[in-house]
Design a protein that fits this description.
This protein is α+β, with helices and mostly antiparallel strands. It is about 40% helix and about 25% strand. The chain has 2 domains: about 40 residues, no CATH class; about 140 residues, GTP cyclohydrolase I, C-terminal domain/NADPH-dependent 7-cyano-7-deazaguanine reductase, N-terminal domain (GTP Cyclohydrolase I, domain 2, 2-Layer Sandwich). It contains 6 helices and 7 strands, in the order H-H-E-E-E-E-H-E-H-E-H-E-H. About 25% of the residues are buried. Bound molecules: guanosine-5'-triphosphate and zinc ion. Guanosine-5'-triphosphate (GTP) binds next to helix 4 and helix 5. One of its GO terms (molecular function) is GTP cyclohydrolase I activity.
């Protein structure tokens, strides 16, 4: 389904009325249109198949770990429609020298982050896309994020950081996993 800007604007106008605001006062007059455009940007991943980015392939001579750390992302938690944001660390061990462009790993993170999400699902979707498109020997995805639904409201724990991981192939084995984890965490302040 295509994004329905007019429908979103109507819903936001109704929301403003329902919370007791006057949607026609000067400061709020453009808010439904503005927020409608913002939501489209925040949910832009719904309009794409992020796997397409991984179809840019190169062949190298080696099958050693490729790891891109500290990919900043923002997503929206599907329970509260509040943002969660943090950093993704994405790595894989190629097979037959098959690699993709480094920026493509970040594009995949973006494509799956810009949807109503759960952090666990976001993590495994990134891993499955790399696994399914590159057929590498192993994949590791680690996400660290702060959820606004836990910091601004509810339990109100602003410093809490949620860490999730998804491992595929040989990166599931304890030795390889431990080495890769230390590379991910080793870069941290
Ligand atoms: N597992 C998981 N839980 C999430 C994520 N984002 C938000 N949540 C949690 O979803 C849960 C929803 O719980 P509910 O009891 O239905 O909602 P609530 O009454 O607003 O819960 P509180 O946040 O505890 O006030 C909360 O515990 C949130 O912290 C996520 O990405 N993964
Ligand atoms: Zn939430």
């Amino acid at each position: 389904m295509m994004y329905d800007q007019a429908g979103v604007e109507r819903a936001i106008r109704d929301l403003l009325i329902a919370v007791g605001e006057d949607p026609d006062r000067e400061g709020l007059r453009d808010t439904p249109a503005r927020l409608g455009r913002s939501w489209r940007e925040l949910l832009a991943g719904m309009e794409e198949d992020p796997r397409k980015h991984l179809r840019t392939l190169f062949t190298t001579g080696t099958d050693e770990l490729v790891l891109v750390r500290d990919i900043e992302f923002s997503s929206v938690c599907e329970h509260h429609l509040l943002p969660f944001r943090g950093r993704a660390h994405v790595g894989y061990i190629p097979a037959d020298g098959r690699v993709t462009g480094l920026s493509k790993l970040a594009r995949v993170v973006e494509g799956y982050a810009r949807r109503p999400q759960l952090q666990e699902r976001l993590t495994s979707q990134i891993a499955d896309a790399i696994d399914g498109e590159l057929h590498p020997q192993g994949v590791i995805v680690v996400l660290e994020a702060e959820h606004m639904c836990m910091s601004m409201r509810g339990v109100r724990k602003p410093e809490a950081s949620t860490v999730t991981s998804a491992l595929r192939g040989i990166l599931r084995s304890p030795a390889t996993r431990a080495e890769t984890m230390s590379l991910i965490l080793g870069g941290h302040r």
